[in-house]
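Service request form, structural biology core

Requester: graduate student, group of Dr. S.
Request type: structure prediction, single chain
Budget code: on file
Notes: please return the result as C-alpha cells.

Sequence provided:
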Amino acid sequence: MKVSYDDVRYFKAIIEALSRLVDEASFKIKPDGIELEAIDRAHISLIKINLPKDEFKEYDVQEDMNFGFSTQYLLKVLSTSKRKEELEIESQDVSTIIIRINGEYPRVFELRNMEVSPPELPELKIEFDVKATLKSEAFRKAVSEIATVSDVVDIIADENGIKVKSKGEAEAEVELSKDSGSIQDIEISKPIESSYSTDYLNDILVLTKLSGNTKMSFAEQKPLQLEFNTESGGSVIYLLAPQLG
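Core staff response, request fulfilled:
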C-alpha cells in the first residue's frame, strides 16, 4: 500500500481536528479511498471522513487494510511539515506504517499499526429545517468571537439570514447574510433557534482550511451538521449534539 498527498497541510488539518475529539482512531484504507468514523470522548459529537482515491497524487491500494494510530502522536509527526510539502503513507507489512514528508528536508517516520476498535455509531436520520452554505472564514470568525464570552452559542436562522449569538450574561452577536457575502445559499422551512457548545465548534473549525465554503444544517434541539468538502471530492461531516435547557 502506498498513497501520497500533494499538500500535507490538508491532511494535517484533518488530524488536528480528530486529535481534539479522540485519543485513537483508525483509517479504513480501501482500493477506492480512505474512510474514518469516530465518536468524541464525551459521546456528544461524531465525525465521518471520506477521502476518495482522486484526492491523492498517488494511490496504490490493492486490498482493504486498517491504519490504527494515536491521534496525538500522528499530529506530532505532521507538526514538522510545512505548506506545499508532500505526504506519503506506505506499508509493506500490516504491522508498520511508514510516513514520509518530502520537502527541502525529507523526513521518515515509522509508526506501529495499532488495533483500534471501531466505534458503535448510532443510526441517525435527521430532518433539518435549515440548510446553508457559509463562507468558511466568516463562520469560523463568528464562532471564535462568541467563544471569547460564552461557552454556548445560539444559532438563529430566519428569512434575513443567520445570527450567531452568545448565551449567558455577556452579550455578543454576529450576523451572517447573503448581502454581506458570508452566506452563499440558504434554505429555511421555518425560523429556528438552537444552542451548541462553542468549545466543540472551535475545535472542529480548523477544518475550514479544507474549503472556502462550509455547509451547515440544523433544526431546533437537534444535532448541528457541518460538512467540509475538498476540491477533489473529499468530505468531512461533523455532527454535534445540541445544548438543551
